[in-house]
Design a protein that fits this description.
The protein contains 4 helices and 14 strands. With about 250 residues, the chain is of the alpha+beta class. It has a single domain (about 35-245), classed as 2-Layer Sandwich (60s Ribosomal Protein L30, Chain: A).
């Protein structure tokens, strides 16, 4: 019996080393699937360049990819949902959503997630500010180690949401000011949505890398049936929204 138990633990450890997950201490919270990134917000702005550092094609060979970031040149946004690579660009003043497996990004954050743990979103977490405050405690209560970065999903509808699609003009020098000015803002009301986000504590080192300080969450939203997609600036969720925490 003891030999079988030890073999089982060794097999689990090998699986986690192979696929990038971790084993939580017995009785403790579960370590979420690994969050990875390439490039960084601060490097992009310091260098004044939004050249590509990440390619979706290199990541899509493995199933259950969830990822977000801006498009190369800051000409749009990326949202990969369970292996489907959505992009949004501004064309003739309007948002255009497409599927593009060859998209590239100056920075990208991603995780491979096979299973999710569901939690109902309470009233106090329906706004973005309330949600960001509630999320780490909700994760820990659900058994997810909130000391590590993790991916999450939000499913439901919004009463309103503000998103942007970055659209830096070709040849425009990249500065903090031009980056802010390039944000094409879209206001949404009363729409079903799906959101992909990543959480990382302020002390995790993610600030200025794939988190915009001082926020601890980075979110992209896609409307249903999928005509609009972009980076989330604010929202108010309608009743009945569901949070899904990365589990395995």
């Amino acid at each position: 019996m003891r030999i079988a138990a030890n073999l089982s633990r060794l097999c689990l450890l090998f699986h986690c080393l192979l696929w990038g997950c971790s084993v939580a201490p017995t009785g403790g919270p579960r370590l979420p699937p690994k969050v990875e990134h390439v490039g960084a917000i601060h490097s992009m702005l310091e260098e004044g360049s939004a050249a590509a550092h990440a390619s979706l094609a290199a990541l899509l060979g493995r199933e259950h990819l969830y990822a977000l970031g801006p498009l190369e040149g800051l000409r749009g946004e990326i949202l990969v949902w369970d292996g489907t690579p959505f992009t949004s660009r501004i064309e003739q003043g309007a948002v255009r959503v497409a599927i593009d497996a060859d998209a590239k990004a100056p920075f990208l954050v991603w995780s491979y997630v096979k299973e999710w743990s569901e939690v109902e979103v309470p009233e106090q977490a329906k706004t973005l500010a309330g949600f960001e405050t509630w999320l780490p405690d909700a994760a820990l209560e659900a058994g997810v180690d909130n000391s590590r970065p993790f991916a999450f999903l939000l499913l439901g509808a919004v009463d309103f949401a503000t998103i942007h699609v970055v659209d830096l003009a070709p040849g425009e020098p990249l500065t903090h000011e031009s980056h802010r000015a390039a944000n094409h803002v879209v206001q949404l009301e009363k729409q079903p949505v799906q959101l992909l986000g990543f959480f990382a504590r302020a002390e995790s080192g993610a600030q200025g890398v794939y988190m915009f300080p001082p926020s601890t969450v980075h979110l992209h939203l896609r409307t249903q049936p999928g005509t609009t997609m972009g980076h989330v600036k604010d929202f108010s969720l309608a009743p009945g929204a569901t949070l899904k925490l990365a589990w395995r």
